Inverse folding.
């Protein structure tokens, strides 16, 4: 079974631009979460989508948004890029939403975004 | 200017020895925990998980211990191998209402000396 895939793997943008990142979850998984990883802040939760609806949101500005499609694929968008948005953006998929039972979360390889 | 980053605890072990990586979690309401391994240039890799109604769970060469009284997790790796060198994270989920939102620790860098 294929793992979580993310495209593109690397991206270079300039301040003020916007960017869209894509994530395809493991087949059959319906929950997709996004995280930002930086040396200064570590791994931080951005948001989670389940059944095309945002279920949880972390403490990030409104410039960060996302969506999920009916096939569970997800995209996240960052508008008006700032230098501080340079990070590894990770997508994780889970079979179900919530921790009502063991619900492992598996990560993709990430998209390395550099903002110049 | 000076680069500021998280202070990453480090652990160096000899190949073949057992490793113990510790993690203090933040919220007493957390009821599900995952240990991840992250190698350079890769996304975190699921190692093992544990629910709050257990205090120990074993996998292949790994054991996770949970002490809810002091909000502490540990990951034990038996017979550590060079391929175990990586950064290890514990992640906590705060149960109902939190969905799949996990809070991650700062990580521990494990170096295995051949």
């Amino acid at each position: 079974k294929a793992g979580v895939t993310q495209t593109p793997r690397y991206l270079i943008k300039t301040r003020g631009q916007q960017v869209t990142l894509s994530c395809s979850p493991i087949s059959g998984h319906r929950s997709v979460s996004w995280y930002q990883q930086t040396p200064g802040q570590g791994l931080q939760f951005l948001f989670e989508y389940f059944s095309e609806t945002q279920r949880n949101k972390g403490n990030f500005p409104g410039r960060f948004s996302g969506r999920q499609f009916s096939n569970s694929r997800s995209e996240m968008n960052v508008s008006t890029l700032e230098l501080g948005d340079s990070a590894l953006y990770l997508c994780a998929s889970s079979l179900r939403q919530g921790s009502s039972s063991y619900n492992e979360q598996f990560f993709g390889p990430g998209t390395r975004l550099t903002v110049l | 200017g000076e680069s500021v980053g998280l202070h990453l605890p480090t652990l160096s072990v000899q190949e073949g020895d057992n490793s113990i990586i510790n993690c203090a979690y933040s919220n007493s309401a957390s009821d599900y925990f995952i240990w991840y391994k992250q190698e350079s240039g890769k996304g975190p890799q699921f190692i093992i998980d544990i629910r709050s109604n257990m205090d120990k769970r074993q996998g292949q060469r790994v054991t996770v211990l949970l002490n809810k009284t002091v909000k502490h997790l540990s990951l034990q790796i038996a017979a550590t191998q060079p391929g175990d060198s990586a950064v290890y994270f514990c992640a906590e989920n705060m149960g109902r209402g939190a969905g799949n939102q996990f809070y991650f620790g700062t990580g521990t860098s494990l170096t295995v000396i051949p």
